[in-house]
Amino acid sequence: MSSISDYVDLGQPMFWSLQQDQVRVLSKNKKQAEKDLKISLRNKQEKQLTHIITKLFGGNSLYGCYALAVTIFTIGIIRDSIYERALRTQPTHPLLTGPVSNALALALFTSGNILVLTSMYALGITGTYLGDYFGILMDEMVTGFPFNICSAPMYYGSTLSFLGSALWFGKPAGVVLTGVVFVVYKIALRFEDPFTGGIYAERERKEKIEGKKSR
């Protein structure tokens, strides 16, 4: 009788490398999110003015956000490369090969990329790459496609793409890693969603106060 060890090579360093990277990122994001949620939004805005990235670009928050965007995009490419290398030497399961599995893989990969790319188009560079941390807010929160399908299309789209890749190559280890990525994303959303919603709620509150004063 076959076991999971027959199809998931836990001895491969690359398999654990991706999971360790995800845990480190989650730990860092969790600590930062907890700190952000404990202070007021006003203090958060003041802190952003002295943010180290902004300082590096002469106090220009837009340039700082662009630099962060390049960094995150580059790290994403490295992450995808690690994922591909982790799968390359993993065992293949016969149930994950064949035309049905390949068709499902293509559907998942395509739909995942549609969610990611359309959300990036809707948000723009600053909306996609943490512009709100630099005090760069959109005119209003995006609620159209693909955000009318799910609240975090980038995270869910990325998860679908990972799963599609795992099925395309017939690697059970890829399915396991996809599960790890999904859990990390879900935990991150517990901190990100309240923070983002709070920023726009605070701006709306200030606009109402200013509107009353101008009357």
UniProtKB/TrEMBL annotation:
<protein>
    <recommendedName>
        <fullName>Phosphatidyl-N-methylethanolamine N-methyltransferase</fullName>
        <ecNumber>2.1.1.71</ecNumber>
    </recommendedName>
</protein>
<dbReference type="GO" id="GO:0006656">
    <property type="term" value="P:phosphatidylcholine biosynthetic process"/>
</dbReference>
<dbReference type="GO" id="GO:0031966">
    <property type="term" value="C:mitochondrial membrane"/>
</dbReference>
<keyword id="KW-0808">Transferase</keyword>
<feature type="topological domain" description="Cytoplasmic">
    <location>
        <begin position="191"/>
        <end position="215"/>
    </location>
</feature>
<keyword id="KW-0256">Endoplasmic reticulum</keyword>
<keyword id="KW-1208">Phospholipid metabolism</keyword>
<feature type="transmembrane region" description="Helical">
    <location>
        <begin position="103"/>
        <end position="123"/>
    </location>
</feature>
<keyword id="KW-0489">Methyltransferase</keyword>
<comment type="function">
    <text>Catalyzes the second two steps of the methylation pathway of phosphatidylcholine biosynthesis, the SAM-dependent methylation of phosphatidylmonomethylethanolamine (PMME) to phosphatidyldimethylethanolamine (PDME) and of PDME to phosphatidylcholine (PC).</text>
</comment>
<dbReference type="InterPro" id="IPR007318">
    <property type="entry name" value="Phopholipid_MeTrfase"/>
</dbReference>
<keyword id="KW-0444">Lipid biosynthesis</keyword>
<feature type="topological domain" description="Cytoplasmic">
    <location>
        <begin position="79"/>
        <end position="105"/>
    </location>
</feature>
<keyword id="KW-0496">Mitochondrion</keyword>
<keyword id="KW-1133">Transmembrane helix</keyword>
<comment type="pathway">
    <text>Phospholipid metabolism; phosphatidylcholine biosynthesis.</text>
</comment>
<feature type="transmembrane region" description="Helical">
    <location>
        <begin position="61"/>
        <end position="82"/>
    </location>
</feature>
<comment type="pathway">
    <text>Lipid metabolism.</text>
</comment>
<dbReference type="GO" id="GO:0005789">
    <property type="term" value="C:endoplasmic reticulum membrane"/>
</dbReference>
<keyword id="KW-0812">Transmembrane</keyword>
<feature type="topological domain" description="Lumenal">
    <location>
        <begin position="1"/>
        <end position="2"/>
    </location>
</feature>
<feature type="binding site">
    <location>
        <begin position="110"/>
        <end position="112"/>
    </location>
    <ligand>
        <name>S-adenosyl-L-methionine</name>
    </ligand>
</feature>
<feature type="transmembrane region" description="Helical">
    <location>
        <begin position="162"/>
        <end position="185"/>
    </location>
</feature>
<feature type="topological domain" description="Lumenal">
    <location>
        <begin position="127"/>
        <end position="169"/>
    </location>
</feature>
<keyword id="KW-0443">Lipid metabolism</keyword>
<dbReference type="GO" id="GO:0032259">
    <property type="term" value="P:methylation"/>
</dbReference>
<keyword id="KW-0472">Membrane</keyword>
<keyword id="KW-0594">Phospholipid biosynthesis</keyword>
<comment type="similarity">
    <text>Belongs to the class VI-like SAM-binding methyltransferase superfamily. PEMT/PEM2 methyltransferase family.</text>
</comment>
<keyword id="KW-0949">S-adenosyl-L-methionine</keyword>
<feature type="binding site">
    <location>
        <begin position="192"/>
        <end position="193"/>
    </location>
    <ligand>
        <name>S-adenosyl-L-methionine</name>
    </ligand>
</feature>
<dbReference type="Pfam" id="PF04191">
    <property type="entry name" value="PEMT"/>
</dbReference>
<dbReference type="InterPro" id="IPR024960">
    <property type="entry name" value="PEMT/MFAP"/>
</dbReference>
<dbReference type="GO" id="GO:0000773">
    <property type="term" value="F:phosphatidyl-N-methylethanolamine N-methyltransferase activity"/>
</dbReference>
